[in-house]
Design brief:
The complex is a heterodimer of chains A (550) and B (216). By secondary structure, chain A is an all-alpha fold. Chain A has one domain. Chain A contains 19 helices and two strands. In chain A, strands 1-2 form a two-stranded antiparallel ribbon. In chain A, strand 1 (284-286) and strand 2 form a beta hairpin. With 216 residues, chain B is an alpha+beta fold. Chain B folds into two domains: 1-46; 53-182, Sandwich (Tumour Suppressor Smad4). Chain B contains three helices and eleven strands. Chain B has helices spanning 3-45, 166-172, 184-215; strands at residues 53-59, 70-73, 76-80, 87-88, 99-104, 107-112, 118-120, 123-125, 130-133, 138-141, 144-150. Chain B has a six-stranded antiparallel sheet with strand order 2-1-11-10-7-8, with no helix packed on it. Chain B has a five-stranded mixed sheet with strand order 4-3-5-6-9, with no helix packed on it. The chains are: A mainly alpha (550), B alpha+beta (216). Chains A and B meet through helix 4, helix 5, helix 8, helix 17 and helix 19 of A and helix 1 and strand 3 of B.
């Protein structure tokens, strides 16, 4: 830099003949004698080294010839390799010992830094792989196991208390029920999800609700408790079947048409063969199956038809088969005067329509139509007028029309926060204590806290369902799950609202808790649909996670 | 067991059952939360999981969507400017619901829902027509220009993306079934008609220009 500054400060002036003036001429570098000497020295040193090397080579050649001639000195190849290895080890040890402590520390630091980064990266990659494996595994974790064990504990406590309720005797039927139910709940929660398309948490929650229903029903009516257990077993079989169909089947066209035809047929049956009961004609007596409520099973047909027609074709005209089917179902339910179920059907249809097409004006029109239909029902049917009047003021007729609601409210109040205890209180005073008003019985025996937490369990089941359907890849699966959830949640809120006098009483069952084979089986089948959707979403996710690199 | 003892035990069981159900609720909340966190981590780790591909915005981006931005394309859903659409494109002249799409083995099938339709590689797709988009197809909806990138290799028989409506592609392959699908002859006729129409429009324009010149 100094040289540059000196030479190029000013432009060199040139003389007339073009030569640079002496003032600005760059000084020629003087050759130093010392450099000459050094080059001579290097040359001499090189010669000496070459001489030494040639001497060494000749010496090694001579020694090798001697070794070849002498067979004793020849070593086997394996021994040689071993020797080499030991020598290398010794050398590394020596190097480590002989190394300067300062340089050794620096080297250590450097060597540490790179592996730390590598280790961190490796740990991250391993964690990501672990996450992926967990995401695609159908394993049962600690939470689900604990829920299953708690369910078994609840069953054991409740049924043991029922067994020793009568002084001086033990109810063996309760013990037998316990021996059947506890292993069944444990097996269905902890074993079945490993082999079948079943979502463990949903299974655990539905099992818990069914167990609560069985225990409460056994305390108020042992025969009904035992029958409910039989329905539960049948429902589990139906649930597994439905979940396998939903997870394995690819085309639903034929099944949808079959379900629609069977659904219409099933809803016509009570009108032809049924009898009026509590102002409605919605039950059928069959020779082998006994009495059953077709409208509970037609829920599945409706959901399937709507999911099929709302998913593939998005225009309103192409949705028409499903809309017409829903209209036909509603008409038949109105003829049966089963207005509670009709309301559930209508609300679920509207929810699915909105989810499928997002058409706000048509949905609002639908809501308006529903309100108009409700007004018409109020004007047309006398029992609807009575229910609305009793909802507004049950104390106007406390011994006849308002008796049911008043008893339910008294039961909830007398239970307090933690209840009177299993088998205590007077639930029999409520006329429909085993089906419509089971929530009041639960609140009386186990308390308001338990009742509120039961609603929380339903909400959690619904949220789990939402998370399952949000992972589904096809709109058909999403709509199917959406319809099922709408049915379950609307039904739950309608009956709880009716029992606590928030809504007019509609006469529907509490899902999975109330006594009734049709209701329990249809609810478990709906949960089976969610299991199937979950299994399919899981399969798709496995495909994605295992085939793609992050 | 005496009545008094039974009452005490059943009352105690009331408290135990409240604790049991509280534990059930907490455990299921914990499980749900851990599952959600796990899915979020997996999604972060594998952004491609759960999607058929992405639409890359090439042009037409505005305030709410920038050029170069990628929009996830699920395996099935709707496309439009509505927030409820699975592929939400908040760009001018994009209809609330412009198209409905689903993924198949041969590519992304797309049906126009609005009368404006859309264009795929400069081929107009009218309402009711079904276009099959391969990897790399360029889609024009309203003022938006989007390039499709599919994650999975789809059957485009190695000749790059094919972008024709399903009826036309069937006809080109000689698979016209006579029900809504035109045969080769019909395709030729359509081409001729288009050509004639174009000629007519050109002549009209030329006449209009001449008339303007005359006026001047």
């Amino acid at each position: 830099m100094a040289f540059k500054q000196e030479t190029f400060k000013a432009r060199p002036k040139r003389t007339s003949d073009g030569a640079v003036s002496a003032k600005y001429k760059r000084a020629a570098p003087e050759k130093e004698p010392a450099e000459k000497k050094s080059s001579e020295k290097r040359f001499l040193e090189k010669n000496a080294l070459e001489k030494k090397n040639t001497e060494k080579k000749t010496a090694s050649k001579i020694s090798a010839e001697k070794r070849i001639n002498n067979p004793e000195k020849q070593k086997p190849a394996a021994k040689k390799a071993e020797e080499k290895k030991t020598a290398a080890k010794k050398a590394t040890v020596r190097r480590a010992v002989m190394a300067d402590p300062k340089t050794a520390n620096r080297a250590k630091r450097e060597s540490r830094q790179t592996p730390v980064r590598m280790r961190r990266d490796r740990a991250r990659a391993e964690a990501a792989m672990r996450d992926r494996r967990r995401a695609v595994s159908r394993g049962i974790d600690m939470s689900v196991t604990l829920i299953a064990l708690l369910t078994a504990l609840f069953l054991a406590g409740g049924l043991l208390l029922c067994a020793v309720r009568v002084e001086g005797s033990v109810d063996m039927r309760a013990l037998r029920l316990l021996a059947a139910m506890a292993p069944l709940t444990l097996m269905t929660t902890l074993v079945l999800p490993r082999f079948l398309p079943i979502e463990p948490l949903m299974m655990a929650l539905s099992n818990f609700l069914c167990s609560v229903g069985v225990v409460i029903l056994y305390t108020v009516s042992p025969e009904r408790g035992v029958r409910q257990t039989n329905f539960y077993i049948m429902g589990l079989a139906a649930m597994i079947m439905v979940s396998m169909i939903v997870s394995k089947m690819r085309r639903f066209r034929g099944l949808t048409w079959l379900a629609m035809i069977l659904g219409i047929g099933a809803l016509v049956m009570p009108l032809v063969f049924g009898e009026w009961n509590n102002g409605a004609k919605n039950w059928v007596e069959l020779p082998l199956l006994g009495s059953f409520q077709p409208s509970e099973l037609v829920k599945l047909s409706l959901v399937l038809a709507m999911a099929y027609y709302f998913s593939a074709h998005r225009t309103v005209l192409q949705m028409m088969p499903a809309i017409l089917f829903a209209g036909a179902c509603l008409l038949l339910l109105m003829l049966q005067r089963d207005l509670g179920t009709a309301l559930i059907y209508y609300a679920a249809t509207l929810v699915m329509f909105y989810v499928a097409c997002g058409n706000v004006p048509l949905t609002v029109i639908g809501l308006g139509g529903g309100a108009a239909a409700a007004m018409l029902g109020y004007k047309m049917f006398a029992h609807v007028k009575v229910r609305v009047a009793m909802w507004r003021n049950p104390w106007s007729d406390p011994l006849d029309k308002g008796y049911q609601i008043i008893q339910a409210l008294l039961a909830i109040g007398s239970g307090g926060l933690f209840g009177l205890g299993i088998g205590q209180g007077t639930p029999e005073k409520i006329p429909a204590y085993y089906n419509d008003f089971i929530f009041a019985v639960i609140c009386e025996q186990l308390g308001l806290v338990f009742g509120l937490l039961i609603i929380a369990v339903y909400v959690l089941l619904a949220l789990r369902g939402v998370s399952v359907i949000s992972r589904s890849r096809r709109s058909f699966d999403m709509l199917l799950g959406c319809g099922v959830l709408a049915m379950l949640v609307i039904q739950m809120f309608m009956i709880v609202g009716g029992v606590i006098k928030m809504l007019p009483l509609t006469g529907v069952t509490m899902p999975m808790l109330s006594y009734g084979g049709s209701s329990l089986i249809s609810c478990l089948m709906m949960v089976g649909i969610l299991h199937g959707i979950s299994a399919r979403a899981q399969e798709n996710m496995e495909e994605d996670v295992l085939s793609r690199r992050g | 067991m005496t009545r008094a003892w039974y009452q005490v035990l059943s009352l105690g069981f009331g408290y135990i059952s409240a604790a049991i159900i509280a534990a059930v609720v907490l455990l299921s909340l914990r499980k749900s939360a851990s599952d959600r966190a796990l899915w979020r981590r997996v999604r972060r780790d594998l952004p491609q999981a759960g999607a058929a591909g992405v639409f890359k915005v090439m042009a037409g981006g505005g305030r709410r969507i920038a050029a170069g931005q990628e929009i996830r394309v699920p395996y099935e859903g709707t496309m439009g400017s509505s927030h409820s659409c699975d592929v939400h494109i908040p760009v001018r002249r994009v209809h609330l619901r412009s198209a409905f799409f689903w993924m198949e083995k041969d590519g992304l099938h797309m049906v126009a829902l609005h009368r404006d339709g859309f264009e795929v590689d400069d081929v107009p797709v009218e309402p009711g027509d079904e276009a099959v988009l391969g990897d790399g197809a360029i889609l024009r909806v309203g003022e938006a220009k989007l390039a499709l990138r599919l994650y999975k290799t789809v059957g485009s028989d190695g000749n790059g993306p094919y972008v024709t409506s399903a009826r036309r592609s069937k006809a080109q392959q000689g698979k016209g079934d006579g029900i809504g699908a035109p045969g080769r002859g019909e395709m030729r006729r359509e081409k001729k008609l288009k050509h004639l129409q174009e000629e007519k429009t050109d002549k009209r324009r030329a006449r209009g220009k001449e008339a303007e010149k005359g006026r001047r």
